[in-house]
Design a protein that fits this description.
alpha+beta, Aminopeptidase, 7-stranded mixed beta sheet, 7 helices
Length: about 210
Amino acid sequence: MTDSLAVALRPATSSDVGTLAAVLARAFYDDPPMTWLLPDPATRLRRLTRMFATIIGIESLSHGGVDIAHAGKEILGGAIWLPPGHWQPGLREKVWAAPGHWRAVAGGEVRAARMGRALSSAHPREPHWYLKSIGIDPSSQGRGVASLLLRSRLEYCDRHGQPAYLEASNPEGVPLYERFGFRRIGNVGMPAGAPVLTKMWRPPAA
């Protein structure tokens, strides 16, 4: 049984994109910004899966910061980290990713564009590791998987003297990030009616 297997971490590979995208889609199904962006519950899971497949496979995997938590062959969750200087996709990545993102948010392009502009304008310009997304399959939550994923990459940041940044999309997650050294530095100026996103910054530990 999965519960009897130790949870371990490994880097994601191209063969993991579809499975990890589905896991993250389930993890973010009730996430406030995602329910605002994709309000139809009947199509949200499919759209989120496509969105995460695009983010992972085109925008993130090649940078080496996508971490997977697994028990045996089962993927329990993952974290998408982008290294300093790569928090925004390059021009070629944007072109390749555009069809996937368009299909994911079809009908909600205006909301998506406004959200994207808000995130971009609020983003720190100092070099840092950016935690774009971290999610655990609902069936595996409460097992310390998120803490394992956070600890691994933040230890890397500390060894290399690099800060980290994230936007907390759910107030319930803020205390977890604070336990790992993140501090609130304000809110993202989201569009009217959108949920609050908390900006959080973590300097490298001495």
